[in-house]
Amino acid sequence: MAVREEPDLVRRVHLDYFRSGASAAITASYQATPQGFAQRGISADTALELIALSVRLADEARREYLSESPVPRPLLVAGSVGPYGAYLADGSEYRGDYSLSGEEFLEFHRPRIAALVDAGADVLACETLPSLPEAAALLTLIKEYDVEAWLSFTLRDGGHISDGTPLAQVAALVAEQPLAAAIGVNCVPLELVSPALRALGKVTGMPLIAYPNAGERYDPVSKTWGPAAGSGRPRQQTTRWTCGGNINLA
Predict the structure, then answer these.
(1) Per residue in 34-50, pLDDT tens?
(2) Closest Cα partner for 34 from 87, 83, 82?
(3) What is Dmax (Cα atoms) for the chain?
(4) How far apart are CA 124 and CA 126, in angstroms?
(5) Which superfamily is assigned to 2-248 in CATH?
């Protein structure tokens, strides 16, 4: 994990993003869990310390940037919370084909969220979520830890998240939690972003977030990305994403 092996590189990457105009640094904790570290012989206490370190590195970058260029806008540290599928490392965050009980999801996510919040993350980035039950568990935890969060999902198509749940149903669930600050999509092909944002915009007034990939297909066996299947580039798409008013690009 980069936070353990090259922490200064992680800090410098965050700093580069702030220097490029970013308003939020997403911590290097997306795939960091005590369960995953245990498979590499790392204790739970050390794992939680590394997760906390991911917040401190982002905060150090923020402080360094502000010392160089004070800015009027707030700069946030967002604690990244990847799905259970990211821990499995088999591409299932793009399929949503795993099944855990609500309590199992809570037990899996709670230690990392506690570590991120205790370390000072301003907000949580619950991202690349493929399933409604997992999102429900995360909404329970953001209430438990009294922390704002955005939730972003992977997609089966322009109207459904990866487990097949309609985006309208997902939006209704997220809107029930006042600490949910925004909803959107991430790590999805470019061509799915516009229809997904339109589907969400029809049913919620929450801020919308989009940070897609370039359309490549992930091979969980070789751990590599294949050629892009979609068309266009992010820069060519952003005008249509933002012209609706309340769409944010993270």
Answers:
(1) 999 999 999 999 999 99
(2) 87
(3) 49
(4) 6
(5) Homocysteine-binding-like domain (3.20.20.330)
